């Protein structure tokens, strides 16, 4: 194993030792291994912000000394947030499949709604296999870059092509895109260019107008530069494995600080309202500062957008909304007054999670003075990290699978970390956490009582572990995980290891509860007991 890999592994082992919820995994031959890791904060953050992610492999090109891949997302301020990273010395299809399976396991098996990737075949295959229900798109800036490279001769001789290509890609409707694309090809004599044909054929994977029905969180923050910017300026082409961890730690520290600063800024500044609208006041008190400004701009634009009622049918009213003097760029809004629901052809809300000016114009016309709760995505609010945070992803897994036990183990640890991190600040969160952990403890006790401790047969149909496979293997059969909690097998000789791990975990939980108890203003206390 190279010194560089050893260096990285040394750090990962230390971090796991200090915090068992720090997760890492290794695959393959040590000389060409892949290493994945995700820290406790990232695992916790995924439960709040794991709806849309970017998997970035731009550092995996031959231009970089360390093939470094990252999973990132967006926090409630729209800042990039880390959901794990990997060193991919082996970049085969099997390696990417392993990486996604391992990552999915580490974040408790809950797939994101959407994922943005580089246009790379192996990555796409891995996403399709491991996250079949996740909407996949190519990073459009990667496509732009590729187009610039392929059409370098045109970009040199035709300075306008870049702007025209960008305008075409940002079309507001499919018809507009098709028309502009056709004109672009004609203007630059690219009608017979096979590569451009393949780019066009893949349009549903990268042209925004085709993907607006899915949440990607775009236009809402610093992560909208088109690609992962989390490690920009920290990881460079010259970064080696020896200094990777230092650069990684610097990036994590800086972004954590930026989030704290944004939290502080949101909490300590009074939103500057531009109108007497109760809706603006409501949004100002709920959204983070950055997202409120996005909303405020949309609300402000309703002053110039008029909503004209077209027809009513079956309790639903159709409106045409257009900016003054721009009737040709109108949007159709469907409004259901009984449910106070509206949808707009621009699909801004579906795509970004912030309501559009067109629906707001209709609300204004119909005297809807406050924003219906469904248009206030919690992930963009000041309280994004409170309440409902302890969603039990493990509960979505089959409860009798070997993975579910390990995931439950991991989640228990994760929950404790979260409770500690929250400082039991919110009593609702605390209570939810306590109830969930108590429930988990009962299940653990049930398992023990049914004979797992004695390593006995698990033939009992009522035993939650009864149908476990002989041994829990890693996502890929040839994989090797060094995370002790993962190496535990379910049946056979290692049953006692599982139970010991769980018992250690419970002890850990109780220590944490003591800690929480000191901090909880209501003096709540809970002790987990396995009888
Ligand atoms: Zn709209």
TrEMBL record:
InterPro entries: FHY3/FAR1, MULE_transposase_dom, Znf_PMZ, Znf_SWIM. It is found in: Nucleus. PROSITE patterns: ZF_SWIM. The keyword Ribonucleoprotein does not apply. Keywords: Metal-binding, Nucleus, Zinc, Zinc-finger. Coiled coil: none annotated. Residues 329-367 form the SWIM-type domain. It comes from the Eukaryota. Pfam families: MULE, SWIM. Belongs to the FHY3/FAR1 family. Putative transcription activator involved in regulating light control of development. This is Protein FAR1-RELATED SEQUENCE.
């Amino acid at each position: 194993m190279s010194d560089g890999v050893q260096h990285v592994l040394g750090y990962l082992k230390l971090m796991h030792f200090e915090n068992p919820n720090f997760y890492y995994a290794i695959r393959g031959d040590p000389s060409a291994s892949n290493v994945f890791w995700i820290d406790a904060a990232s695992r916790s953050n995924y439960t709040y912000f794991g709806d849309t992610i970017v998997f970035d492999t731009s550092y995996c090109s031959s231009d970089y000394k360390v093939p470094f891949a990252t999973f990132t997302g967006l926090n409630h301020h729209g800042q990039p947030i880390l959901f794990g990273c990997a060193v991919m010395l082996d970049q085969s299809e099997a390696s990417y499949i392993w990486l996604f399976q391992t990552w999915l396991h580490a974040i408790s098996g809950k797939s994101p709604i959407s994922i943005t990737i580089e246009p790379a075949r192996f990555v796409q295959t891995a996403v399709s296999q491991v996250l079949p229900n996740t909407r996949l798109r190519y990073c459009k800036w990667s496509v732009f870059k590729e187009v610039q490279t392929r059409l370098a001769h045109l970009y040199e001789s035709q300075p306008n092509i870049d702007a025209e290509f960008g305008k075409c890609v940002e079309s507001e409707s499919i018809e507009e895109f098709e028309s502009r694309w056709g004109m672009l090809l004609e203007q630059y004599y690219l009608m017979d260019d096979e590569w451009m044909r393949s780019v066009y054929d893949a349009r549903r994977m990268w042209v925004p107008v085709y993907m607006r029905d899915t949440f990607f969180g775009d236009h809402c923050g610093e992560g909208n530069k088109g690609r992962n910017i989390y490690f920009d300026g920290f990881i460079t082409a010259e970064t080696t494995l020896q200094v990777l961890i230092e650069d990684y730690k610097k990036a994590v520290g800086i972004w954590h600080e930026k989030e704290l600063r944004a939290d502080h800024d949101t909490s300590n500044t009074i939103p500057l309202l531009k109108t007497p609208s109760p809706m603006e006041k409501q949004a100002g008190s709920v959204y983070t500062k950055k997202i409120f400004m996005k909303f405020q701009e949309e609300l402000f634009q309703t002053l110039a957008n008029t909503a004209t009622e077209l027809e009513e049918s079956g309790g639903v009213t159709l409106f045409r909304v257009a900016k003054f003097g721009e009737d040709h760029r109108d949007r159709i809004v469907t409004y259901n007054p009984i449910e106070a629901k509206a949808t707009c052809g621009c699909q801004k809300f579906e795509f970004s999670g912030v309501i559009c000016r067109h629906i707001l114009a209709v609300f204004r016309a119909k005297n809807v003075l406050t924003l219906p709760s469904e248009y206030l995505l919690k992930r963009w609010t000041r309280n994004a990290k409170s309440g409902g945070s302890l969603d039990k992803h493990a509960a979505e897994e089959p409860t009798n699978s070997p993975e579910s036990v390990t995931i439950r183990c991991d989640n228990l640890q994760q929950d404790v970390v979260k409770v500690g991190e929250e400082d039991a600040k919110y009593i609702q969160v605390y209570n939810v956490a306590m109830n969930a952990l108590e429930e988990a403890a009962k299940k653990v006790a049930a398992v023990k009582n049914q004979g797992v401790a004695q390593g006995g047969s698990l033939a009992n149909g009522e035993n939650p572990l009864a149908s476990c496979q002989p041994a829990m293997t890693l996502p890929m059969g040839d994989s090797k995980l060094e995370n002790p909690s993962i190496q535990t097998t379910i049946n056979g000789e290692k049953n006692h290891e599982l139970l010991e791990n769980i018992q250690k975990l419970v002890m850990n939980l109780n220590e944490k509860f003591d800690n929480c108890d000191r901090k909880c203003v209501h003096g709540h206390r809970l002790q987990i007991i396995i009888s």
